[in-house]
TrEMBL record:
<feature type="domain" description="GS catalytic">
    <location>
        <begin position="118"/>
        <end position="475"/>
    </location>
</feature>
<dbReference type="GO" id="GO:0006576">
    <property type="term" value="P:biogenic amine metabolic process"/>
</dbReference>
<keyword id="KW-0547">Nucleotide-binding</keyword>
<dbReference type="GO" id="GO:0006542">
    <property type="term" value="P:glutamine biosynthetic process"/>
</dbReference>
<dbReference type="InterPro" id="IPR008146">
    <property type="entry name" value="Gln_synth_cat_dom"/>
</dbReference>
<dbReference type="GO" id="GO:0004356">
    <property type="term" value="F:glutamine synthetase activity"/>
</dbReference>
<comment type="similarity">
    <text>Belongs to the glutamine synthetase family.</text>
</comment>
<keyword id="KW-0436">Ligase</keyword>
<dbReference type="InterPro" id="IPR014746">
    <property type="entry name" value="Gln_synth/guanido_kin_cat_dom"/>
</dbReference>
<dbReference type="InterPro" id="IPR036651">
    <property type="entry name" value="Gln_synt_N_sf"/>
</dbReference>
<keyword id="KW-0067">ATP-binding</keyword>
<dbReference type="GO" id="GO:0005524">
    <property type="term" value="F:ATP binding"/>
</dbReference>
<dbReference type="Pfam" id="PF00120">
    <property type="entry name" value="Gln-synt_C"/>
</dbReference>
<protein>
    <recommendedName>
        <fullName>Glutamine synthetase</fullName>
    </recommendedName>
</protein>
Length: 475
C-alpha cells in the first residue's frame, strides 16, 4: 500500500469533512474517533493527545482491579501521544468513504512507543531483524461463527439481551465445510464482506465455509508483517461492520459452542532478505538432516523453529489471551495442545510448509496455537521475538517431529503440554525467568500479565449458567 506523503494530505482530503482514526489496545480492539479535517491536518505529523485509559481498562471499559503503570488513577489516566501512520490510509466503503488512518501510541516525553502499544511492540521486534538487513512476511487465517440478528436495526448489545448467548440462532445449520451452496443462502452478506475487504485494503485470498453451524474462514492475502497485523485487525472491523447491514453478528471467540470445533487464528511467517529471497528455504534438500521434516529448511530456519518451540510455553497468554481460549485448546479437536511440530502436520503447534511439497519461495511456518480471539500484532511480535531469539542463540530444535497420524494428546513423549488455563499461562508468562521477559522486557510483561490476571480474577468471581443449571436444585 503506497505511503501518503505529508505534503499531499491537504489535496488528498480536500473534499472530506472529517477523518476517522483508531489505535489498537492490548485486546486487539480498535479504539478511535472521528476528528475534523482541519484538526487532522494540524496534528498529522506531531500527533495528538489520546487518553491513556484505553490501556487502563478492560474490553468492557472497567478499570483494572489492580492498577497498572501505563494508565492509572495516580497518574490521572494521563494523555499519551497518538501518531497517525500515514502509510495506513484507506477509505471506509460502508461509511461513505470516510478517510481512515491507524495510529501508534508513544510516550509524550520520550517519544518512544509505550510498553502496552501493540503496533509499537511489533515494530520493536521487527527492528531486530532489520538491523541485519532482513524482513518478515506473514499471512493470517481467521475462523468465526456467525449468528442471525432478529433485525438489521439491532446492535450487538441489544441482540444479546434479546437472545441468551447459548440460544443464538446460527446463520446456517449443520456441519458443511467448503460448501458451495451454503454461501448462496446469505450471498449478499457473503460477497459484501469479500468486496468490502478489497475496497478497505485488507484483501481476502480465500473465503469459504468451515465445519460448524454458521462458521466461515478467511485467509488474508500475505504481506509484510507489520502491514499484515494491521490488516488482520481491520478484517474483524470489516466483518463486524458489514454484518450490521445484513443482520449478521460474527463471533471471534475461540470456542463459542461446546462439543463443536473452535475458531482458530493461524499465523504464517517467513523471513526474507533485502531482495525478497526467502531465508527459511534451503537451496537444496538436505539428505543428511537429523529429521526429514527439516530437509528443506535452512540453518537459520531451523534455529528460528527452535526459538519458537522453546518459547511457546512462556508466551501462551498472547496466543490464548482469554478464559475461553483454553476451551479450544483441548485434545481431539484439531487444536494443538503440546510443544510440537512437523512437516505438513496439521495437528502440531507449528506446521512446516517447505519443499518438496511447495516451492522454496513459499517456505514458511504456520503457527497453529492462536485462536481467532487474539491480537494479531502481539501474536506476530511473539512469533518474531521468540523465533529470532532462536537464531541469535543458535538454539537446537528441542524435540522430534510428530509422525504423520500421531496425535498430540498431551503425552509426555509427544512434547511438553501447553498451559490448560489462563491462570497457569499467565503465571509462567510473568515468572522472573520467563523467556517473555527476555524478549519483550519487564514493562510489557508486567502490563500485559496484569491485564490477564484481571481477566482471571473476574472469572473467578463470576457465577455461570453451568453452575446454576447444575446446582440450583441438587445441592
Amino acid at each position: 500500500m503506497p505511503t501518503v506523503k505529508l505534503d499531499s494530505l491537504r489535496e488528498l482530503l480536500e473534499h472530506d469533512a472529517c477523518v476517522k482514526v483508531a489505535g489498537v489496545d492490548v485486546d486487539g480492539i480498535l479504539r478511535g474517533k472521528v476528528i475534523s479535517r482541519k484538526k487532522f491536518l494540524s496534528i498529522a505529523e506531531a500527533g495528538f493527545g489520546f487518553c491513556s485509559v484505553i490501556f487502563g481498562w478492560d474490553m468492557h471499559d472497567q478499570t483494572y482491579l489492580r492498577e497498572l503503570s501505563v494508565s492509572n488513577a495516580a497518574n490521572g489516566y494521563r494523555d499519551i501521544l497518538a501518531i497517525p501512520d500515514l502509510s495506513t490510509f484507506r477509505r471506509i466503503p460502508w461509511e461513505k468513504n470516510v478517510p481512515f488512518f491507524l495510529v501508534s501510541f508513544v510516550d509524550p516525553e520520550t517519544k518512544k512507543p509505550i510498553a502496552a502499544c501493540p503496533r509499537g511492540l511489533l515494530r520493536t521486534q521487527l527492528r531486530k531483524l532489520q538491523t541485519q538487513g532482513y524482513g518478515a512476511m506473514a499471512g493470517a487465517e481467521y475462523e468465526f461463527y456467525t449468528f442471525r440478528a432478529p433485525n438489521s436495526e439491532s446492535s450487538p448489545a441489544a441482540f444479546l439481551q434479546q437472545n441468551p448467548p447459548h440460544q443464538l440462532p446460527a446463520l446456517t445449520e449443520g456441519m458443511f465445510g467448503y460448501s458451495l451452496t451454503r454461501p448462496v443462502h446469505n450471498k449478499d452478506w457473503y460477497y459484501d464482506v469479500y468486496h468490502s475487504c478489497a475496497k478497505f485494503s485488507c484483501d481476502v485470498e480465500g473465503w469459504h465455509t468451515e465445519s460448524g453451524p454458521g462458521v466461515y474462514e478467511a485467509a488474508l492475502e500475505f504481506g509484510e508483517v507489520g502491514e499484515m497485523a494491521d490488516r488482520a485487525s481491520l478484517f474483524k472491523y470489516v466483518v463486524k461492520s458489514v454484518g450490521v447491514d445484513h443482520g449478521v453478528t460474527p463471533c471471534f471467540m475461540a470456542k463459542p459452542k461446546q462439543g463443536l470445533p473452535g475458531n482458530s487464528g493461524h499465523m504464517h511467517i517467513s523471513l526474507v532478505d533485502g531482495d525478497g529471497k526467502n531465508l527459511l528455504a534451503r537451496d537444496t534438500l538436505d539428505d543428511g538432516a537429523e529429521w526429514r521434516d527439516v530437509a528443506g529448511l535452512s540453518d537459520l530456519g531451523r534455529h528460528f523453529l527452535a526459538g519458537l518451540l522453546v518459547g511457546l510455553p512462556d508466551i501462551m497468554p498472547i496466543l490464548a489471551p482469554t478464559i475461553n481460549s483454553y476451551k479450544r485448546l483441548v485434545e481431539n479437536f484439531w487444536a494443538p495442545v503440546t510443544v510440537s511440530w512437523g512437516f505438513e502436520h496439521r495437528a502440531a503447534s507449528i506446521r512446516i510448509i517447505s519443499p518438496p511439497t511447495s516451492k522454496p519461495g513459499a517456505t514458511r511456518f504456520e503457527v497453529r496455537v492462536p485462536g481467532a480471539d487474539t491480537n494479531p500484532h502481539l501474536v506476530l511480535a511473539a512469533i518474531l521475538g521468540c523465533g529470532w531469539r532462536g537464531v541469535e542463540k543458535k538454539l537446537a530444535i528441542p524435540c522430534p517431529p510428530l509422525a504423520m497420524g500421531q496425535s498430540v494428546g498431551g503425552k509426555a513423549d509427544l512434547g511438553e503440554r501447553l498451559a490448560k488455563s489462563l491462570r497457569e499461562a499467565t503465571a509462567r508468562f510473568t515468572s522472573k525467568d520467563s523467556i517473555a521477559r527476555e524478549v519483550f522486557g519487564d514493562d510489557f510483561v508486567d502490563h500485559f500479565g496484569g491485564t490477564r490476571e484481571n481477566e482471571v480474577r473476574l472469572f473467578d468471581e463470576a457465577v455461570t449458567d453451568w453452575e446454576m443449571k447444575r446446582y440450583i436444585e441438587t445441592v
